[in-house]
Design a protein that fits this description.
The protein is of the alpha+beta class and 231 residues long. The protein contains seven helices and eight strands. Helices cover 50% and strands 18% of the residues. It has a five-stranded mixed beta sheet with strand order 1-5-6-7-8. A three-stranded antiparallel beta sheet has the order 2-3-4. The longest helix is centred in the middle third of the chain and has 31 residues. The two termini are 24 Å apart. The structure holds zinc ion. Zinc ion binds next to loops.
């Protein structure tokens, strides 16, 4: 499920791979790929695959948390707004100059030159806007993609037969998660990097009973306790 998407937060170099013990059925662990061949000291214990998966899915299903991350991507929207403002200013100036020229039978050449200048500036800015919005669209996983993933998460994340579909949906959306396979006192902390989002978000998972787990996110203490209570 996480193949190629989970990085080891211990060494920072290797992928995490799912290891299924032959003794404990279904108790898969996420172990650093560096461990097996002695290429790193990340340990064999690993993180509980099922817990991490459930915690990640609950995180991704939280649209109140995810949507702002996707729409507030880096500084691009700000740059786009700034460009649009500049264009409308250039257009206004050009309009005023054009009015001056129309109202003056012998308008000075200077005004014509200014008009040309403002028109050229507007044209340049509009092409910058086009380029910027293209880039923005190309980088952003559209919100529809996210809605598709949420649906898949809601209906299909529990069935093994839907694994390939889940895996595709995740890969379209998730750049990577970084997780230290050691955990700390049974708490696993991982950062979630969404494609196109400028911020990575820290998430915690802790198993509290056979069925229950706590998934916490850093950043908003109010939300933190809210989620903890809900879990
Ligand atoms: Zn490692």
């Amino acid at each position: 499920m996480f193949t190629g998407l989970a990085k080891c937060g211990c060494c920072g170099r290797h992928n995490l791979i799912a290891h299924h013990s032959t003794r404990e059925e279904g108790q898969g662990r996420l172990v650093s790929a560096g461990t097996g061949k002695g290429r790193s000291n990340c340990g064999f214990a690993g993180a509980p695959l099922d817990l991490i998966a459930k915690s990640l899915f609950s995180f991704l299903a939280d649209s109140e948390l995810i949507r702002p991350l996707l729409t507030a991507k880096s500084s691009h929207p700000c740059k786009l707004e700034e460009l649009q403002l500049k264009v409308s200013e250039a257009e206004k100036r050009a309009e005023r100059i054009a009015e001056l020229i129309l109202g003056d039978d012998e308008a000075p050449k200077l005004l014509y030159d200014r008009l040309k200048l403002e028109e050229a500036r507007g044209k340049q800015l509009r092409s910058e806007i086009d380029a910027e919005s293209m880039r923005f669209k190309a980088e952003a996983p559209a919100l529809e993609t996210y809605e598709g993933l949420r649906e898949t998460l809601a209906n299909k994340s529990n069935h093994i037969s839907h694994r390939p579909e889940m895996r595709r949906a995740l890969a379209a959306f998730l750049e990577k998660i970084v997780l230290d396979p050691h955990g700390e006192d049974g708490v696993w902390c991982f950062t979630v990097h969404l494609k196109g989002a400028c911020e990575a978000v820290k998430s915690f998972a802790k198993q509290i009973s056979n069925a229950g787990f706590i998934a916490l996110r850093l950043g908003d203490p109010a939300r933190l306790s809210e989620v903890a209570v809900a879990a």
